[in-house]
Write a structure and sequence with these properties.
The chain has 175 residues and is mainly alpha-helical. The chain has 7 helices and no strands. This is DNA-binding protein.
Length: 175
């Protein structure tokens, strides 16, 4: 696991944290969707709401968020981090399936090929960690996840990184 990664939070705790924060901090459309459908606000918005509430309290214009609210935001942060790590690992699989090498990926990230490979090795196990699904997008906003499943399958003649082991990659540049 990457040194900057948090342990994956229990999905049920994430759902509870979202349900705790949303009625307290949702505004506008998010507030209406919570009241009508109990749809939680987006995770980043929930985290930002706690940070904003704390900043207002430090300026003396509001009360500090409670410890339970801050704890709920930290749980949601763990879910956001896991989701981002899983997304990065899937995108790295996509890059490889598209024919990109570690040298190319490393150049984009500003890393050495060895560091890019190590990063992937650290992220790959996160794909197996149970994740709480993020709140759905706002109604009417299509996402890539709405596309048919067949669009997301790798080509038959190209293995994805998950199917390869270290010997398939040989040595990285600079070794």
């Amino acid at each position: 696991m990457p040194s900057t990664s948090l342990p994956a939070p229990v999905p049920a705790r994430v759902q509870e944290a979202r349900a705790y924060l949303t009625p307290r901090y949702a505004t506008g459309v998010d507030e209406v969707l919570w009241e009508a459908r109990e749809r939680p606000m987006p995770d980043r918005d929930a985290i930002d709401a706690i940070i904003t509430a704390s900043a207002r309290a430090q300026r003396g214009t509001a009360d500090h968020p409670g410890l339970v609210e801050v704890a709920a935001a930290l749980v949601v942060l763990g879910a956001v981090r896991l989701n981002l790590d899983q997304t990065e690992a899937r995108l790295l699989n996509t890059a490889q399936a598209s024919g990109m090498s570690f040298d190319q990926i490393a150049a984009i990230f500003g890393l050495s090929a060895e560091a890019a490979l190590e990063r992937y090795r650290q992220l790959k196990p996160r794909l197996d960690e149970p994740a709480a699904p993020p709140p759905p997008p706002l109604p009417g906003r299509a996402t890539a996840r709405d596309e048919p499943n067949w669009l997301h399958r790798p080509t038959v003649d190209q293995p994805i990184w998950d199917e390869l082991d270290d010997e398939d990659w040989g040595t990285c540049a600079g070794q």
